[in-house]
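Hi team,

Filling in the usual template for the complex we talked about on Friday. All components are listed, including any nucleic acid strands or ligand strings, so the model treats them as one assembly.

SUBMITTER: L.P.
PURPOSE: interface mapping
COMPONENTS: two
RESIDUES: 810
SEQUENCES:
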Amino acid sequence: METLSLARFKALSLDEVRVLETIFWSAGGSRYSLADRLGYSKSKSNALMAGLVEQGLLAESGLQDSSGGRRAGTLQLHGGLGVFVGVDIGAASLAVALFHPDLALLAQHAEPIDVRKGPGVILARVRAVIRKLIAQCGFSARDVLGIGIGVPGPVDFGTGQLVNPPLMPGWDGFSLREDLREDYSAPVFVDNDVNLLALGELWRLRRSLQNFLVIKVGTGIGCGIVCHGEVYRGAAGSAGDVGHICVDQAGPRCHCGNVGCVEAMAAGPAITRMAIEAAQDGASPALADCLRVSGTITVQDVGQASRSGDAAANGILQRAGSLTGQMLASVVNFFNPSHIFIGGRIAHIGPLFLAAVRQSVYQRSLALSTRHLEIHYAPLGMQGGMVGAGVLAVQETLKVKGVAP
Amino acid sequence: METLSLARFKALSLDEVRVLETIFWSAGGSRYSLADRLGYSKSKSNALMAGLVEQGLLAESGLQDSSGGRRAGTLQLHGGLGVFVGVDIGAASLAVALFHPDLALLAQHAEPIDVRKGPGVILARVRAVIRKLIAQCGFSARDVLGIGIGVPGPVDFGTGQLVNPPLMPGWDGFSLREDLREDYSAPVFVDNDVNLLALGELWRLRRSLQNFLVIKVGTGIGCGIVCHGEVYRGAAGSAGDVGHICVDQAGPRCHCGNVGCVEAMAAGPAITRMAIEAAQDGASPALADCLRVSGTITVQDVGQASRSGDAAANGILQRAGSLTGQMLASVVNFFNPSHIFIGGRIAHIGPLFLAAVRQSVYQRSLALSTRHLEIHYAPLGMQGGMVGAGVLAVQETLKVKGVAP
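RESULT (copied from the run log):
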């Protein structure tokens, strides 16, 4: 398929780009509702859409009955626009996807990594995987219109540089954008992993929720924030760093220097530490078996033991969920979100964890804040980071065009 | 002065109202920068502005040098638009102001009240004071174009009704809007007092800061939130209810049912309780004198004792500031604001309070979140609530017009 070159994309008018952006964020809106949403006259928006269909950038996607009984075609971004790349770099895993402009998945690849090996090793893999996926689908580097990347650490969103990422030694100040510039002329956007979880869910919801949180519980605990229908990154880009909220003034010391941080008491390493203690002090025969056989205990092992009814494992999950909920109660009193979506490895460790989170939040938050609050697993699940990276790629590519024609 | 009637205001075009709104939020913007800000062509915006000047709704306000050396007149809202009323109902005080449309103060009145006397008694005073101020300035009820009211409790912003306000027994479900409809045909807007502190500072700053907090420490502790340049009220309108964030799992029981809420340990009543204890157990001769002479101790007394060097009073202020800062540290980790402004009676109790707040926040929050964080007294001080009510009146009156022509 022939795609639009970056040069031709840059030659689109601002009005044309606004149409593409609005359709990207619409769920099968008809031509008529789009005109309304754009604030353009029907004739102006029809002319713009006809032009974009003719250029092969928009496509009709089936027909829907409008309220008047008349059948109005719905539009979506067309593959002629090019392809977008989403990269989800985790502490221990790499996922890369090639997306159609409407975020239909064209190809994907995942592999275990150790992010502590540093940017040289990891970026070599990222570049090789992107190349492989592009070739596999019959595209070339010039068909790539935008690249979005999520990383498990703080990012200066403007420059795309990592800022002192605690889980990524050796990456401080590294610019993924500069590195990928050698292979692609497409713009590269980098964001924190939890911001991308939030952006992914916001797109999935087509902005039907305006104020919600996505919590990720894994090696650390972080939070993506959607406020007024946009991802909120904070004054210095560090909003959502909830892992270091104190939940116990007499708690253990955290690597950040303070005591009682929820991350030090309820995230993955704390769960396995409690499990090893339970195995060693005889509180859990199941976990003791596990430790003897494999020499260590993973969070999956704790989940397995909990599901098979091990009381100590249940106690550990309840304690972790309860402390996470205690932290969230403070956040709920402050932010009053409509929904909290919980993702990350630990979220799926067992139903007791989510139950304990919920109980703790509803008990500790004010009634008015929780009256309509819903707490669920993140609907995009483990795909959230990759989808969020894809949304970032499309959204910011269109925005950059909009800002600097 | 002849003012625009509400009927004539309603006949303004949406474009005209957008010009008025933009000028209200601009600090002496020139005609040229306004055209840019409105996104209109220079000819369209000039025609709109000329029309509004002709109708007596906009006025030139002096001349400023533009960058090109050419002198471009700046515009502001003209008194011909009418007057706006701001009402600040506190737990123990009532302040009412009559504002020019550019928020210049025309007249004001303040008196002590006890809000617990209920809506009948308090609203009778509110109505009498508004009537007095209007007459005093030579206006009549039909010159009032909008009314903004702040109350010390949760408000359903859509309906203007109070929702279970803990400090306002007897007010649950009461609608100030309905009550004032008998006297005025102008729209009435009601909001929580801390949201109005935030709105007032946002207007004072002409939106030059986009993400900040205003904390009010008085009988309770509340927080107004500005996010993406707009006041954020939360999914159910209860955002900023930080008084019930837990700062001590072993703390005293709060009236909300939970233990260790910062409000129960650091707000006005906690400060006076600690002071009475210090007076009774001999820790503070100064506070003991005060208790003997006047039979009680106020927060002002504690501030006075602290300023004169009383060690026990100093300890009380440091403890209250430190606990308030501990709560704010959680909020800073989550929200990463650029500024925190501290207001309310307690804020000005003495320099030790602010110093302890700062120390606690900088110690407990992550470095990235506090690198550029500034913590100051709220610049509008005790006028903040009244100014915020005035901003609410102007902004929402223009917005209502914009939404429902």
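MY TAKE: DSSP finds 15 helices and 14 strands in chain B. Chain B touches chain A through 49 residues (CB under 8 Å).

Thanks, L.
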